[in-house]
């Protein structure tokens, strides 16, 4: 019967993958290099497989090692969270408010919300996480985050949601693009233009599909991005156009990007997500109210 790995083996493999060497792993773990080498050798013997290959003085993980690392990483994320919480307890900062939001929302709206909370609300440590739309509600459902803010997704069991705003579709173009001279952009204007598509991971891939539903064809997608912020950065480099709402325009360089209203009935809906049945939480309620206020300002601009 094959012997199982112990925690010492797991932390050693984790450290080697992160640092790429026995020396780096030894430094990270505060042990000697021979100790790391011995533990690695024992781990490989127990598993019956080679985990690393030597290339130019570095240890490169094999496919099996990478798969093992991904599983280890899930456990370490939880362990690091516990250690961080313990440290905050020691510093008497154990009030933590964990918020997860989509990238564009986190870069544009959330900073304004936090700035509006006032000093009285800053006794808590605000822990901010950025995820694509479908993962926002999932993190709230798992209890890892107290509040989710982002694009509307299908209902998640155990999670309640409320609308915080709706925004019309905008077209982002390179600032020097000829279409930037137009006051409004129609679908027909874009048929021969390279499109930067937002992937299904972000949850808004249907925007482009709906936009060109009545056209004879779709524009050719040249790049697919999981996040609108990344897509707009691509537009700023002259690589194509993208359809989204106004949030990226609040943080992108106006010298590189032109944003114009896109003629469409579609709108993007944003929601706040929280666990059902949780006791009232003044800070969460306040953040939801601030999110609504900021979204109303953006929609009215």
From TrEMBL:
Q: Which GO terms describe its biological process?
A: positive regulation of gene expression
Annotated InterPro entries: LysR_HTH_N, LysR_subst-bd, WH-like_DNA-bd_sf, WH_DNA-bd_sf
GO terms, molecular function? DNA-binding transcription factor activity; sequence-specific DNA binding
Which residue ranges does the record assign to the HTH lysR-type domain? 5-62
Q: Name one Pfam family in it.
A: HTH_1
PROSITE patterns named among the record's database cross-references: HTH_LYSR
Assigned keywords, A-Z: DNA-binding, Transcription, Transcription regulation
Presence of keyword Transcription regulation: yes
Signal sequence, renumbered to the chain? none
Q: Does the keyword Glycoprotein apply?
A: no
Q: Per the similarity annotation, which family is this?
A: Belongs to the LysR transcriptional regulatory family.
Its protein name is: LysR family transcriptional regulator
Which species is the source of this protein? Diaphorobacter ruginosibacter
């Amino acid at each position: 019967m094959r012997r199982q790995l112990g925690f010492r083996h797991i932390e050693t493999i984790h450290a080697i993958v992160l640092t790429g060497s026995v020396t780096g792993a030894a430094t990270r773990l505060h042990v000697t290099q021979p100790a790391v080498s011995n533990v690695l050798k024992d781990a490989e013997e127990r598993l019956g497989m080679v985990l690393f290959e030597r290339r130019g003085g570095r240890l490169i993980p094999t496919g099996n090692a990478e798969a093992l690392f991904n599983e280890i990483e899930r456990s370490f994320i939880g362990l690091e969270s516990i250690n961080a919480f313990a440290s905050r307890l020691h510093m008497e900062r154990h009030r933590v408010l964990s918020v997860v939001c989509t990238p564009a929302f986190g870069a544009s709206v959330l900073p304004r919300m936090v700035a509006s909370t006032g000093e009285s609300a800053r006794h808590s440590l605000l822990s901010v996480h950025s995820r694509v739309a479908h993962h926002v509600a999932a993190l709230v459902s798992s209890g890892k985050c107290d509040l989710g803010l982002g694009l509307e997704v299908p209902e998640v069991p155990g999670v309640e949601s409320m609308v915080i705003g709706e925004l019309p579709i905008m077209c982002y173009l390179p600032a020097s693009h000829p279409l930037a001279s137009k006051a409004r952009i129609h679908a027909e204007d874009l048929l021969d233009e390279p499109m930067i598509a937002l992937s299904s991971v972000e949850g808004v891939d249907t925007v482009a599909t709906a936009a060109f539903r009545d056209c004879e064809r779709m524009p050719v997608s040249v790049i697919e991005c999981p996040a609108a912020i990344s897509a707009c950065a691509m537009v700023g480099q002259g690589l194509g156009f993208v359809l989204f709402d106004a949030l990226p325009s609040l943080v992108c360089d106006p010298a590189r990007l032109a944003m114009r209203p896109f003629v469409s009935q579609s709108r993007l809906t944003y929601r706040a997500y929280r666990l059902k049945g949780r006791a009232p939480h003044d800070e969460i309620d306040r953040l939801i109210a601030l999110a609504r206020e900021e979204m109303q300002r953006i929609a009215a601009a």
